[in-house]
Amino acid sequence: MDFEGRNQILTRFSEQHRQEEAVQNPQKHCRRDDASSAAVLWSSSSAGEDQIKLAAISISFNARLKASDMSALMQEHAVRVARSIADSVPRRNLNGSLLARVLKKEFDAAYGPAWHCVVGKSFGSFVTHSPCGFLYFSLEDSLLSVLLFKTEVHVVRKP
Protein backbone atom coordinates (compact mmCIF):
# COMPACT_ATOMS: atom_id res chain seq x y z
CA MET A 1 0.00 0.00 0.00
CA ASP A 2 1.42 3.39 -0.97
CA PHE A 3 1.64 6.49 1.23
CA GLU A 4 -1.51 8.09 -0.23
CA GLY A 5 -3.58 4.97 0.40
CA ARG A 6 -2.48 4.79 4.03
CA ASN A 7 -3.14 8.50 4.48
CA GLN A 8 -6.69 8.14 3.09
CA ILE A 9 -7.43 5.23 5.43
CA LEU A 10 -6.11 7.15 8.44
CA THR A 11 -8.09 10.23 7.47
CA ARG A 12 -11.27 8.18 7.01
CA PHE A 13 -10.71 6.41 10.35
CA SER A 14 -10.07 9.65 12.27
CA GLU A 15 -13.14 11.32 10.71
CA GLN A 16 -15.33 8.32 11.58
CA HIS A 17 -13.95 8.27 15.14
CA ARG A 18 -14.59 12.01 15.51
CA GLN A 19 -18.19 11.64 14.29
CA GLU A 20 -18.87 8.73 16.67
CA GLU A 21 -17.41 10.72 19.56
CA ALA A 22 -19.52 13.77 18.67
CA VAL A 23 -22.68 11.67 18.75
CA GLN A 24 -21.75 10.16 22.13
CA ASN A 25 -20.66 13.47 23.69
CA PRO A 26 -21.72 16.54 21.66
CA GLN A 27 -20.77 18.97 24.45
CA LYS A 28 -17.09 17.98 24.09
CA HIS A 29 -17.04 19.38 20.56
CA CYS A 30 -18.38 22.76 21.54
CA ARG A 31 -17.15 25.05 24.28
CA ARG A 32 -18.21 28.49 25.39
CA ASP A 33 -15.89 31.42 24.89
CA ASP A 34 -16.44 33.45 28.08
CA ALA A 35 -15.21 36.68 26.50
CA SER A 36 -17.86 36.80 23.79
CA SER A 37 -20.35 34.14 25.02
CA ALA A 38 -20.26 32.68 21.52
CA ALA A 39 -19.80 28.99 20.89
CA VAL A 40 -16.45 27.92 19.52
CA LEU A 41 -16.01 24.66 17.68
CA TRP A 42 -13.75 22.22 19.46
CA SER A 43 -12.64 19.26 17.39
CA SER A 44 -9.58 17.40 16.17
CA SER A 45 -9.49 19.51 13.00
CA SER A 46 -9.29 23.28 13.08
CA ALA A 47 -12.44 25.36 13.37
CA GLY A 48 -11.64 26.87 9.97
CA GLU A 49 -11.67 23.46 8.31
CA ASP A 50 -15.00 22.63 9.97
CA GLN A 51 -16.50 25.91 8.75
CA ILE A 52 -15.29 25.31 5.18
CA LYS A 53 -16.76 21.79 5.15
CA LEU A 54 -20.01 23.10 6.60
CA ALA A 55 -20.21 25.87 4.00
CA ALA A 56 -19.69 23.36 1.20
CA ILE A 57 -22.37 21.07 2.62
CA SER A 58 -24.88 23.90 3.02
CA ILE A 59 -24.27 25.00 -0.58
CA SER A 60 -24.68 21.46 -1.91
CA PHE A 61 -27.94 21.02 0.05
CA ASN A 62 -29.21 24.49 -0.92
CA ALA A 63 -29.46 25.55 2.71
CA ARG A 64 -28.51 28.83 4.37
CA LEU A 65 -27.15 28.68 7.91
CA LYS A 66 -28.29 31.84 9.66
CA ALA A 67 -27.32 31.44 13.35
CA SER A 68 -25.75 28.66 15.34
CA ASP A 69 -24.45 27.66 18.72
CA MET A 70 -23.78 24.06 17.77
CA SER A 71 -20.89 21.88 16.60
CA ALA A 72 -20.31 21.57 12.86
CA LEU A 73 -21.13 17.85 12.95
CA MET A 74 -24.50 18.49 14.58
CA GLN A 75 -25.25 21.29 12.09
CA GLU A 76 -24.41 18.96 9.23
CA HIS A 77 -26.67 16.29 10.74
CA ALA A 78 -29.60 18.72 10.95
CA VAL A 79 -29.18 20.02 7.40
CA ARG A 80 -28.85 16.48 5.99
CA VAL A 81 -32.02 15.28 7.76
CA ALA A 82 -33.99 18.37 6.72
CA ARG A 83 -32.86 18.06 3.11
CA SER A 84 -33.69 14.34 2.97
CA ILE A 85 -37.22 15.01 4.26
CA ALA A 86 -37.72 17.95 1.89
CA ASP A 87 -36.56 15.83 -1.06
CA SER A 88 -38.68 12.80 -0.10
CA VAL A 89 -42.05 14.51 -0.56
CA PRO A 90 -43.39 16.58 -3.48
CA ARG A 91 -42.62 20.27 -3.00
CA ARG A 92 -46.29 21.28 -2.87
CA ASN A 93 -46.94 18.67 -0.15
CA LEU A 94 -43.97 19.61 2.05
CA ASN A 95 -45.35 19.98 5.56
CA GLY A 96 -43.49 22.03 8.17
CA SER A 97 -44.99 19.92 10.97
CA LEU A 98 -43.60 16.73 9.46
CA LEU A 99 -40.14 18.25 9.11
CA ALA A 100 -40.23 19.58 12.69
CA ARG A 101 -41.37 16.22 14.10
CA VAL A 102 -38.68 14.25 12.24
CA LEU A 103 -35.88 16.66 13.23
CA LYS A 104 -36.97 16.69 16.87
CA LYS A 105 -37.17 12.90 17.10
CA GLU A 106 -33.85 12.47 15.28
CA PHE A 107 -32.03 14.85 17.62
CA ASP A 108 -33.72 13.43 20.73
CA ALA A 109 -32.49 9.97 19.72
CA ALA A 110 -28.99 11.07 18.72
CA TYR A 111 -28.15 13.75 21.32
CA GLY A 112 -30.50 13.19 24.26
CA PRO A 113 -33.96 14.51 25.13
CA ALA A 114 -35.46 18.01 25.23
CA TRP A 115 -34.94 19.15 21.63
CA HIS A 116 -37.53 21.52 20.16
CA CYS A 117 -38.09 22.39 16.52
CA VAL A 118 -40.08 25.15 14.80
CA VAL A 119 -40.49 25.10 11.01
CA GLY A 120 -42.32 27.63 8.88
CA LYS A 121 -42.21 30.37 6.29
CA SER A 122 -42.71 33.20 8.76
CA PHE A 123 -42.37 33.11 12.54
CA GLY A 124 -40.81 35.02 15.37
CA SER A 125 -39.09 33.51 18.36
CA PHE A 126 -37.24 34.28 21.54
CA VAL A 127 -35.89 31.13 23.17
CA THR A 128 -33.50 30.09 25.89
CA HIS A 129 -31.34 27.15 24.89
CA SER A 130 -28.67 24.90 26.37
CA PRO A 131 -25.04 25.63 25.47
CA CYS A 132 -24.15 24.21 22.06
CA GLY A 133 -27.79 23.49 21.33
CA PHE A 134 -29.13 26.09 18.88
CA LEU A 135 -29.42 26.20 15.09
CA TYR A 136 -31.39 28.45 12.76
CA PHE A 137 -31.27 27.75 9.02
CA SER A 138 -33.42 27.81 5.92
CA LEU A 139 -33.97 25.51 2.98
CA GLU A 140 -33.78 27.95 0.11
CA ASP A 141 -35.88 26.12 -2.50
CA SER A 142 -38.81 25.44 -0.15
CA LEU A 143 -38.70 28.85 1.58
CA LEU A 144 -38.93 27.07 4.96
CA SER A 145 -36.91 28.20 7.94
CA VAL A 146 -35.94 25.82 10.74
CA LEU A 147 -35.27 26.69 14.36
CA LEU A 148 -33.82 23.76 16.32
CA PHE A 149 -32.81 24.13 19.97
CA LYS A 150 -32.24 22.11 23.11
CA THR A 151 -33.34 22.91 26.65
CA GLU A 152 -32.40 21.42 30.00
CA VAL A 153 -34.44 18.61 31.51
CA HIS A 154 -34.72 18.60 35.30
CA VAL A 155 -36.26 15.70 37.16
CA VAL A 156 -38.91 16.83 39.61
CA ARG A 157 -39.09 14.71 42.75
CA LYS A 158 -42.14 14.75 44.99
CA PRO A 159 -41.35 15.40 48.67
UniProtKB/TrEMBL annotation:
<keyword id="KW-0813">Transport</keyword>
<keyword id="KW-0963">Cytoplasm</keyword>
<dbReference type="GO" id="GO:0015031">
    <property type="term" value="P:protein transport"/>
</dbReference>
<comment type="similarity">
    <text>Belongs to the dynein light chain family.</text>
</comment>
<keyword id="KW-0653">Protein transport</keyword>
<dbReference type="GO" id="GO:0045505">
    <property type="term" value="F:dynein intermediate chain binding"/>
</dbReference>
<dbReference type="GO" id="GO:0005868">
    <property type="term" value="C:cytoplasmic dynein complex"/>
</dbReference>
<keyword id="KW-0493">Microtubule</keyword>
<keyword id="KW-0505">Motor protein</keyword>
<dbReference type="GO" id="GO:0007017">
    <property type="term" value="P:microtubule-based process"/>
</dbReference>
<keyword id="KW-0243">Dynein</keyword>
<dbReference type="InterPro" id="IPR001372">
    <property type="entry name" value="Dynein_light_chain_typ-1/2"/>
</dbReference>
<dbReference type="GO" id="GO:0051028">
    <property type="term" value="P:mRNA transport"/>
</dbReference>
<dbReference type="GO" id="GO:0005874">
    <property type="term" value="C:microtubule"/>
</dbReference>
<keyword id="KW-0509">mRNA transport</keyword>
<keyword id="KW-0206">Cytoskeleton</keyword>
<dbReference type="InterPro" id="IPR037177">
    <property type="entry name" value="DLC_sf"/>
</dbReference>
<dbReference type="GO" id="GO:0005634">
    <property type="term" value="C:nucleus"/>
</dbReference>
<protein>
    <recommendedName>
        <fullName>Dynein light chain</fullName>
    </recommendedName>
</protein>
<keyword id="KW-0539">Nucleus</keyword>
<dbReference type="Pfam" id="PF01221">
    <property type="entry name" value="Dynein_light"/>
</dbReference>
